[in-house]
Design goal:
Elements (H helix, E strand, L loop, with lengths): L10 E3 L2 E3 L3 E3 L15 H12 L4 E8 L19 H13 L3 E7 L7 H4 L4 E2 L11 E2 L2 H21 L3 E6 L4 H6 L15 H13 L4 E7 L10 H8 L9 E5 L6 H4 L11 H5 L8 E3 L6 H10 L4 E3 L2 H5 L3 H7 L48 E5 L3 H12 L3 E5 L7 H7 L7 H14 L3 E3 L6 H7 L3 E4 L3 E3 L12 E3 H6 L9 E5 L3 H12 L3 E5 L11 H13 L3 E4 L3 E5 L3 E6 L2 E6 L4 E3 L3 E3 L9 E4 L6 H9 L4
Parallel strand pairs: 3-4, 3-12, 4-5, 5-8, 6-7, 8-9, 9-10, 10-11, 11-12, 13-14, 13-16, 14-15, 16-27, 18-25, 19-20, 19-25, 20-21
Antiparallel strand pairs: 1-2, 17-26, 22-23, 23-24
Amino acid sequence: MTRPERLGEPLVVGTRRLRNRVVLPPMERNYGTADGRVTADYIGYLSARAAGGAGLVFTEATYVRADGRGRVRQLGAHSDHVLPGLRSLAAAIHAEGALLGVELNHAGRVAEASVSGFQPVAPSPVPFRGSRPRELATEEVAGIVDAFGAAAWRCARAGVDVLEVHAAHGYLIHQFLSPRTNRRADRYAEPTLFLAEVLATVRAAAPDLAVFLRLSAFEGVPGGLDADATRSLAGRLPLDLIDVLDISAGCYEAGEWMVQPGEVERGVLAPYAARYRDLGKPVCVAGRIPTAQEAERILRSGAADLVAVGRAQHADPAWTNAALAGRRPRPCIGCNQGCIDALHTQQPIWCLANPAVSVPPVSVPAPQPAGGRRVLVVGAGVAGLEAARTAALAGHDVTIVEAGDKIGGQFRLAASLPSKPEFGRLLDWYAAELRRLAVDVRLSTRADPAIIRGLTPDTVVVATGGVGRRPSVPGVTGSRVVDLLDWVAGPARVAAGEVVTVWGADRAGVAVADQAAAVGHRVLLLTAAGELAPEAGPREKGLMVRRLTENPDVEIRRETTLESIEDDRLLLGHGGEREWCAARGPVVVAQGIVPRQVEARGAWRTVVLDAAADAAEAIRRGAGVSP
């Protein structure tokens, strides 16, 4: 990998100098306390990214008033009791050579009374998820403006370097800007007035700090601001009060634009950011920037001066140092499972690709001198790959044997699906890591007793995963029935007039149904549940579910069981009733997995990694191996 040049250049913004062009943008983390204070986990998380080389690290959207809180463990700048934690955070970030930014926010109509304890307030009483906010009276608006100023003053006292005013993503300021949520008849019907007053107050309260303004380039929903309307509004703002324009996109009703899944093109928002260059301010841009090459391309194109790299630094805290040195960091694969969808569970965020990113963290051994035990790992799926890496880092002599001709196992199959285009990057990283650590990888090799004895291991780690589960129903052993893993590895031929029946709608079943529909097949998706992929969050599955529900060639039957399979029809159960459904074509079984049985007894110690429910759990189990 070549070393990027522009990425490492310093940049002066207002009164501050960034050591490079990499920004860790505001990301909610659920690492704070119930009253908005910084925790040791929060300091550790941001400090790791500062030590990893980022020029500027931001807190999450930090509420300025209690009725603007959106998460149970969200950070606040709403009261003086948060000051000691903010001071400790600032000191820790500065000790690593980075700058600390705080993003000031009020959630407005997207706050929930069950979280904040208050009825949500908004410019107009436009409902959100069935809840109607209270319209702010004209005289009340000044109180929120003052709250932004007071929060800015607290941040300045705490030693913060940069403030960002959050006017994006459908929060309160954005609600004033948008015609779909601002239907006022008073002076605040002028969409930019509230934001202009907030900027003036923040600048007056913290005159020595740099100020960023975050905007959604477009909302992404009917009746909302499009790219032209947002750019026009930006030109009407008092831009002399800010130092950087920070461009994102979307709102809560179009969450796929706030945090784009891996199937969205890299650098998708760079062309939108470029439209703001003529306003005379440095521009920062977010939006699917997973690699140093993409970040460098954006900077060289002139679309932006700074790149907001969020999930990639979440996956690898040292992403910036690796990028600037031309090394390969542990990659973000755009799955949105632990970094975004975990927020909806009110649990601390984690990372599928990196088990060390969790609270409490998974312990990963530091590199040790060679000369440990001989470890044999059977199976090169992600559990086995992580186990091999963990053992090699601990100084052991490691061999992997894999019956297939490639590493990756079921994860490699997932990487072939159209909704998972970034998954293969994790396998490329594992391959590079195993070469770096001198792990002996033996493909197309079955772990029979002779092979194991010949390797004379001290420890055998069995990481062979599982096989598809087939419930016992009449016809399940017929020729038209295909296990999901076999289907993904090589889809069966579908003749004219046939339909692909996907029996089960967990995340794997939904992804396979999406794949089949994408190549033009008619699809029948059956699920005993009422929801598609109930174990997956909205940002992971959102685009797939939308495509399936909007495709006229896809029939989805919820709360439906499959009770018998014949050559040209299926017996379905629903609500206590049964009916035969005419359906010729393959039946793809997506009913979960059961452990694969492997015999590995001998003089060696055996560690068996049970089949995991998903890739994240598999990787965590691999990281937890102690040879």
